[in-house]
Design a protein that fits this description.
Length: about 375
């Protein structure tokens, strides 16, 4: 069959779909610029620079049951998460990263043509999963300080609106939406996702409100605070009914055996993990101060483990490229509403030092 032939058979909305622009692997980059992979400073994916709990490596090294399927009902996992969150296991569903949960939520509510309210610049997986499901993305851009306008959200609602998506704190900006604003959005009555991927860094949550609001959904993840991005495990806190529907439509073995072991060990080592979170928060504040010293950068205060900065002189893309050639990875997206900004994950102090030195060198050349 010719290429055109197969394209005719592919779902029309996917035939021209651009996909998601994921972070480059350090291995690929190391090869490209000719430096050792250990030397790469990876500040592009909001990972925990201190890694996962050492208990995870130890438990996985000798785990005997990798040849059996994981528990499709996630019974023990959900009980452990009940212990961690203080919310009943019946309100919890786990996924292969919270990315999968976001996708499952949209599959549950969206049919082609339904409208999804999104507040960019924000997490691009919201757009990704909406468009794959043929939902229509309705964008309500954030203001200059990256705050969500509740009034604008309300004005964007039509008879086709099915769901409202919010990341809190927001990725890439680190902005926290005030609880009062979230309550006002919840009171509209439509399904609302409050993505708390960075909850451990912000300390703010609306998760307990799932008992009061049958329309509230709160996905979270082990990727960022617990250093388990590579194992793909997230969970969400839901009203009981939505949790049952999600359990019914999720792929049965969506959380793999290694991830189950890793969560168990991580939750037995929360004090250690939170000590790394504390270090990252302290370093975030130091990084913010350092970035502010550059007249050509405008960093925004963040409640997460990264900082968004507008590039006032030159282009964000250029800055990302220059840092990359020095072995430092940061994020820049070629997306609307990014307003020439970069997102820098908070690393270890020595990584901040290397970044600052590189920025000084780059700054001298752009003559500011
Ligand atoms: C990183 C991130 C996620 C995805 O996390 P995974 O569990 O690794 O899929 C979800 N939401 C936001 C806002 C994120 O930044």
């Amino acid at each position: 069959m010719s290429k055109e032939g197969i394209e005719k058979l592919i779902r029309p909305n996917l035939a021209a779909f651009g996909g998601y622009c994921a972070a480059k692997s350090p291995e690929t980059l190391a090869k490209k610029i000719g430096i050792a992979v250990e030397k790469i400073i990876k500040l592009d994916a909001n990972e925990n620079p201190y890694g996962c709990s050492p208990r995870v490596n130890k438990a996985l090294a000798s785990y005997p049951y990798l040849s059996t399927y994981p528990d499709a009902g996630q019974t023990e996992l959900r009980e452990q998460l009940e212990g961690y969150t203080g919310i009943d296991a019946g309100n919890i569903v786990a996924g292969s990263g919270s990315d999968e949960l976001i996708d499952l939520i949209l599959r549950l509510f969206i049919k082609p043509g339904d409208e999804v309210i999104n507040c960019p610049p924000t997490f691009d997986m919201f757009r990704f999963s909406t468009q794959i499901g043929e939902g229509t993305l309705v964008e309500v851009p954030r203001d200059e300080g990256f705050a969500v306008s509740v009034r604008a959200v309300k004005e964007a609602i039509t008879t086709k609106t099915k769901i409202i998506l919010l990341a809190n704190p927001n990725n890439p900006t680190g902005t926290l939406t005030p609880r009062q604003d979230i309550l006002e959005i919840l009171k509209i009555g439509l399904p609302v996702v409050v993505d708390e991927a960075y909850y451990e860094f912000s300390g703010e949550t609306v998760a307990p409100l799932v008992k009061q609001y049958p329309n509230l959904m709160v996905p979270r993840t082990f990727s960022k605070w617990a250093g388990l991005a590579g194992l793909r495990v997230g969970y969400g806190i839901f009203p009981t009914k939505i949790a049952s529907y999600l359990m019914a439509i999720k792929p049965p073995y969506n959380v793999n055996m290694a991830a189950l072991v890793a969560v168990r060990e991580s939750l037995a080592d929360v004090d250690y993990l939170m000590s790394t979170v504390k270090k990252i928060i302290a370093e975030r504040e130091r990084l913010f101060g350092e970035l502010k010293k550059f007249s050509w950068l405008k960093p925004f205060p963040s409640q997460a483990n990264f900082i968004f900065a507008s590039v006032l002189k030159g282009e964000a893309k250029e800055l990302q490229q220059k840092l990359q050639s020095k072995g430092i990875l940061i994020r820049y997206f070629d997306l609307p509403y990014w307003r020439d900004g970069v997102r820098i994950s908070v690393g270890k102090p020595e990584q901040t030092d290397a970044l600052v030195k590189a920025l000084q060198e780059i700054g001298e050349k752009i003559n500011v």
